[in-house]
Specification:
homodimer; about 525 residues; alpha/beta; seven-stranded mixed β-sheet; six-stranded parallel β-sheet; 20 helices; 17 strands; about 35% helix
Chain lengths: ~525, ~525
């Protein structure tokens, strides 16, 4: 058995059953081994940003890593932007990156580069296998590393000869340490904050945004008179009817400052202290009031469920009912296409158990509030601000959950970064309905240009934010990659197309001029 | 004047007149400054790989750097693959990368990452400006750094507050040291090799591939009975009728070994010792015979023209005529579409002074030989093996040379990495005719799978090399980005479409099933 096969067998034994791949010559032995090993599904992406974003979406839905298969430094480079998002989401990902054979690395061949250097900024664990007999063990360590702490990106670099040379066979899975319990001191501090009588916020992020943990947070908040909010950017929120409602800290700094102005205590659960997305001239980086005390109760890597159970118990909230969102859909709208009417269509028609992937940036701002009372669903967001995650994330979520409808809310500008994901959706016949918010602009930048103080922009500046001339035709782009698509110029057409698409299998794209 | 404006003015004063941009919030002041400063053309790309590849194409044609404008670590990450190619081509590029304001960098905001860490693997020079008064000087240094040595990638990181705070105004250009002359010792060694009586190869790469330097190399070779070849991957070859013919070292290791088997001396001019693109089990990394002596006569960063003039003089070649390729076009073909008939169409119809960008990988192998005697043209290639450069490179070359027709020979698989470049071609109305070699496969990998010894591949492995299911429709993809396109199912149709397109302004794409 060669090194590549020993690695594939080890990954499968360690619970990795899906590999998103964009392989090259150095990865051919890994690819060939897939036919000799049962239990690994391999999904091709036509660009590495699709691969890494899909791995993120897969793991957000399964809580276990997918593997990626990438080709040397440049292939990993193309994956970096979405690995950045995965890192900020604390998503476990195992990158397998081929490199030149160990004896070839000393030469300046065209594809030679510092692969570890490319990996490091977006990885919590990086290792290069030095021979075929180490590959299996290194692979098992990579899986464990991706699951360590709060979850992270582990990158294993595989020189080609470690793949083709003879190995000692697969390695046993490496055990992952249990998530640490929060200390009794932290618990006492949180109780004291909640009983301080001061306006208190429970900020729930990461793993605390699952239905069960949010119910506990809601019980605690109801008992102690506290508020509950989530951060601006979130990996996965379980929400909708039958679950607690979770509002988020506003993206716009001025609005966030106002939203949090009365807060004097914050209990952090599964997240860190909130900071502004960007700095602006004359505005603070921290959005909490300066006089607010911050209590880091449960860190992202802690056992969040245990922490909240103990906190609920300590404040006597166990018997308190959580605030549960009733089923409440908006009426089907009519009239012009606006962020509000698009939101109403999605809110009225979103199927039960859907997965919503939101990279709609400005244009989709009507959808989150309009789906508060929709049937229970998951909400996945851009976490690291690196646009171009939406279509890949939806792809990976659909691979992870083949029986659930996936709805991708996609801004046109960010969609263009990784539009190749549509091809994978077609090839794998994934149940993804994509709504393209086609405003033909980097609309968020029009606001940001003003926010940073660059006033009275001229033609050249405005051209850099303008995606018209020529207009993108997303129907043709989707069809060019084998995905059926149509344009919804009216709300009625959107109702018709969206209502049909979420009920039928396979991908569909709806371009909505807005 | 704020820091951003001081930088733009400095870049213009330093000779940088073109900026390929994909900006975000942190870059808004730079963008706004463009309207206040004359002399900088700003070209928008919808993905950063387009931006970096276009900057490479621009500089290959002008011998001076373009700027790129990129958004924090992830934006730079998306640019890395084509920066890798630029680095291997010794192309000068000046990256301007926005980062969070200095006071915001200490927080773990969503877009925070180690930007310098992302830059380093593909840059020869990296610096972060620490305040607005340093930005102009740092920008002038970045331009000089990109032109230092053989040319390279300089990355200047610009925290947002260095852009918006008050500066001291623009900085003067930083002088670039002249290219060093080769030593008299190196000259004597080369003369001795050429007069050794042993079979000698003059390997010309980089700046030695211009018509004038190749004429000198040809004179020297004719005088001394030596051969002339180029490396496998080349940044820019001036070739065609009226110029010396340049054959290249074969990509396939077995063929390269055979091609070079009789060589006992190699005189390197503007390039390093040739190595195999990849390592393969049981095959050598070095393609020259072990008994061959290598003479590093002129390094890539040396004054190549001076070196060849002195060498020609020293061996008495000044009066020798170079071997000049006469005008010789193939006849217009008929029959089935094959690599050979596609090559004949391009060879028969390539207009004078064209720029050919070749990322056709396997499928376009017929074009290089068929254009040997076409009217004088430039030939630009993938230099670093990082696929996805073709469409951006053609875009940048067309921006650099608006009066020259550009022909992009593009494999379908590699074209998909950076297809967004087509939109920029449409927006800027660039004279680019793209031929998509639509074989619906990573065809090169089918060969490579065999070459690395992964025999008898199964369905899963073959699926990873297969781009059908669904078929890509490049006509729709192009039209979706505003580029006119058509499919050529017959040689006659290809003749018609290609012949028309190269004569008219603006972009056009021809999908050729092959």
């Amino acid at each position: 058995m060669n090194g590549a096969e020993s690695l594939v067998r080890t990954l499968v034994a360690s619970g990795v059953d899906t590999c998103f791949a964009n392989p090259g010559t150095s990865e051919m032995h890994f690819v060939a081994a897939l036919d000799r090993v049962a239990g690994m599904r391999c999904v091709l992406g036509l660009f590495e940003g699709v691969v890494s974003g899909a791995a993120d979406g897969y793991a957000r839905m399964t809580d276990k890593p997918a593997a990626t298969l990438l080709h040397l430094g440049p292939g990993l480079g193309n994956a970096l932007a979405n690995l950045h998002n995965a890192r900020k989401a604390n998503t476990p990902v195992v990158n397998i990156v081929g490199d030149h054979a160990t004896h070839h690395r000393r030469y300046d061949a065209p594809l030679t580069s510092d692969v570890e250097g490319v990996a490091r900024p977006m990885s919590s664990w990086v290792k290069t296998s030095m021979d075929a007999r180490s590959v299996a063990r290194d692979g098992a360590e990579a899986v464990a590393a991706s699951l360590a702490g709060a979850g992270g990106v582990a990158t294993l670099i595989l020189p080609a000869d470690t793949a083709w040379n003879e190995s000692d066979g697969p390695a046993a899975p490496v055990p992952v340490a249990a998530r640490p319990k929060v200390s009794d001191d932290a618990l006492r501090e949180a109780v004291s904050a909640l009983r301080s009588g001061e306006p208190t916020l429970i900020l729930v992020g990461g793993r605390a945004q699952r239905a069960r943990t949010m119910e506990l947070a809601s019980r605690i908040a109801e008992t102690c008179g506290a508020r509950v909010l989530g951060p601006t950017s979130n990996a996965r929120i379980e929400r909708g009817a039958g679950r607690p409602r979770l509002d988020r800290i506003f993206y716009v700094v001025g609005r966030a400052l106002e939203q949090l102005s009365d807060i004097r205590r914050v209990v952090l659960v599964g997240t860190l202290e909130p900071v502004a997305f960007f700095a602006y001239p004359g505005k603070p980086s921290l959005v909490l009031p300066p006089e607010c005390q911050v209590h880091a109760f449960a860190k992202p890597e802690d056992d969040i469920l245990d922490a909240l159970e103990r906190l609920a118990d300590a404040v006597g909230a166990t018997a308190t009912s959580p605030l549960i969102q009733p089923l409440s859909r908006p009426d089907l709208p009519s009239g012009a296409i606006t962020p509000e009417t698009i939101g109403a269509v999605v809110g009225a028609l979103l199927p039960e158990n859907a997965i919503v992937v939101d990279e709609s940036i400005n244009a989709g701002r009507g959808v989150y509030p309009a789906t508060i009372g929709a049937p229970a669903h998951d909400w996945l967001q851009l976490t690291g601000g690196s646009i171009g995650i939406g279509l890949p994330l939806a792809t990976g979520a659909a691979v992870a959950c083949p029986d659930r409808p996936v709805v991708a809310l996609q801004a046109d500008g960010s969609g263009m970064y990784t539009l190749q994901a549509l091809w994978t959706q077609a090839r794998e016949n994934l149940n993804v309905t994509t709504i393209i918010f086609s405003n033909r602009a980097y609309a968020s930048l029009e606001t940001e240009l003003h926010n940073v103080g660059a006033t009275n922009p001229g033609r050249t500046a405005l051209d850099m934010l303008d995606l018209s001339r020529p207009d993108l035709d997303w129907v043709k782009l989707a069809e060019g990659m084998g995905v059926e698509a149509a344009r919804a110029d009216t709300v009625e057409k959107l109702i018709d197309l969206f209502g049909q698409s979420v009920k039928r299998p396979g991908p569909f794209l709806i371009e909505v001029p807005c």
